[in-house]
Amino acid sequence: MIDISPELDGLRATRAIIDLDAIAGNMRALRASLPEGAKVMAVVKADGYGHGAPWVARTALNAGAASLGVATVSEGQHLRAHGIEAPIVLLGSIDPAEARGACQAGLEITVADVRLLEAVQHAARESELAPVPVHLKIDTGLRRYGAMPEQAPALATRIAGDARLRLAGIFTHFASADEPEESFTAEQVRRFVTTIEAIRDVGVAVPPLHAANSAGIITGQGAAYEVVRAGIALYGVSPSADVPLLPSMRPAMSIESRVTRVVPLASGDTVGYNRTFRAGDRMIGALVPIGYADGYRRALSGRAWVGLGGRPARVLGRVSMDQIVVEAPAGMVAAGDVVHVLGGSAVDGAPSITEMADLMGTNTYEVLVGVRRRVPRIFIKHGRVVGVRTD
Ligand SMILES: *Cc1c(COP(=O)(O)O)cnc(C)c1O
User: Fold this and answer.
1) Of residues 198, 176, 206, 238, the one with CA closest to residue 30
2) Among 6, 52, 4, 50, which residue's Cα sits nearest to residue 258?
3) Does the C-beta of 137 come closer than 6 Å to ligand 1?
4) Per the residue annotation, which of 45, 49, 225, 235 is the catalytic one?
5) Using CA atoms, how far apart are residues 299 and 281, in angstroms rounded to an integer?
6) What is the mean pLDDT of residues 137-165?
7) In this model, does residue 1 exceed pLDDT 60?
8) Helices (H) and strands (E) in the chain — how many of each?
C-alpha cells in the first residue's frame, strides 16, 4: 500500500497501482534466464496489458528490453507520440490500407501474405524511413496469422529482393507452450526449423529469429533464438497454472479502493439489484465504488471477495455498474477504510490475479486487459508515486 501523496489529492478512490519496480525486476529476471546476448521484445499491446503502455515500455527498455511489440498501428503511434524511439514491432495482421501509417510511424510490419506485402512495398516507395523493417511470420500450427511454410521462401525472397525493405526477423507463435509436457510445441519448433532451412536454401540471408512467448521463455521452448517475446511474465503473472513464474518475479498491478458507506443490514434485508442476497442475521455491509463499468465483472456477483482489514470480505448480491457491497468482517469498519480489490500482497486478503481469473471464468490476460480506462493508474517507482493517469 502507498501513502496518500499530493499527486493523489482529488483522485478517485478506486485505482490501479502499477509497480514499475516489479516490471523492471521481472524484465531483469527474464533476461537472466536467457542465453547470453538474447534480446527481449517487451510485448506492450493492449495498453501494456492494461498497465499503461508508455510507462511499461520505458521501464522495460531501461531494464534491458531491446524492442517493443504491439498489436495495432495506433498502439505503435501512441508510443511514438510519447517519444519512444526503440524498435516497435506490429505482431498482428494489419489492413493493407494501414501500411502507409505504419511506415510513417517507423513501425516494423509483420507480413504473411502477398496482399499486405504489396501494400508495404508500395508504402515503402513513398517512405522517407526506408528501408522499412519487415518481419515474416510463419504459421507452424496455431492457424492464426502467418504464412504456411511452403509459401515462406517465396515471400522471404520477395522481401529480401526489395531494396526499400529490410527483412528484420522471421518468427512463429506457439499454440500451447503454457500446457505441461505439450509435444506440439516441439513439433512447431521442428516445422519452424525446416521452414528456415528452406528459406536459406533459396539464398535469403536469415535475419534474427523469434518464437518464444512468456511460457516458452520460462520452459525453455524456442528460447534459444536471437529474440524472445515477453508479455504476461513481464507483468509478473504466470501464463497458466502449469507454468510458474521464475522466483523473484511479482505482479505489477493491484487494485485498491475505499469504503464509501457502512451499510447496516437487519435480518431479512436484501442487498442490490434483484435482491439476490438476503441477510440471515444482523450484519454490516461496506459499499465499495467499483463495478462492471470498471471491469469488475457482473459475473463476480455473489462469488468474489475483496480484502478488508486484511481478511477476505465476500461480495453480497449483484455487482452494479459502479458499486458493490461486501460483507464487512467482524470488528470495525469505517468509511474511508482501504479495500484491496485485486492482487495486492499475500496478506491483504484480496484475490490474486490468478484467483480472479478463475472467479471470472477466464485467463489472467483478460483480467489485466479488462481493467477499464476509467480506473486511474498510479505509477510507483522506488516506493514513490511518479505518475498518475486519469481519463
Ligand atoms: C501477445 C503475444 C506475445 C506475448 O505472449 P505472452 O504469453 O503474454 O508472453 C508474443 N508473441 C505474439 C505474436 C503475441 O501476439
Assistant:
1) 238
2) 4
3) no
4) 45
5) 25
6) 97
7) no
8) 11, 20
Q: Given this model, what pLDDT does residue 6 score?
A: 62
d(CA 176, CA 285): 43
Q: Which of 116, 206, 211, 139 is nearest to 167 (CA)?
A: 206
Whether 296 is a known active-site residue: answer no
- Does the bond joining 131 to the residue before it have cis omega, within 30 degrees of 0? yes
Task: Quickly list H helices, the chain.
Answer: 20-32, 45-49, 53-62, 73-81, 99-104, 114-126, 152-160, 183-201, 214-219, 353-360, 364-369
If you take atom 13 of ligand 1, which residue's CA is the nearest one?
91
Predicted TM-score (pTM) of the model is: 0.96
Question: Using one digit for the tens of pLDDT, what is the confidence trace for 244-298?
Answer: 999 999 999 999 999 999 999 999 999 999 999 999 999 999 999 999 999 999 9
Q: Pocket of ligand 1, candidates 51, 93, 213, 353: which has the most ligand atoms within 8 Å of its Cβ, to mutate? A: 213
List of residues 6+ apart from 142 with CB closer than 8 A: 172, 173, 174, 175, 188
Ligand 1 in reach of 91 Cβ (< 6 A): yes
Closest alpha carbon to 18 in 62, 44, 48: 48
* Nearest atom of ligand 1 to the alpha carbon of 230: 9
Cα 39 to ligand 1 centroid, rounded to whole Å: 15
Mutate to test the pocket of ligand 1, among 41, 43, 44 (most ligand atoms within 8 A of CB): 43
- pLDDT at 379 exceeding the cut of 70: yes
Whether residue 365 lies in the annotated active site:
no
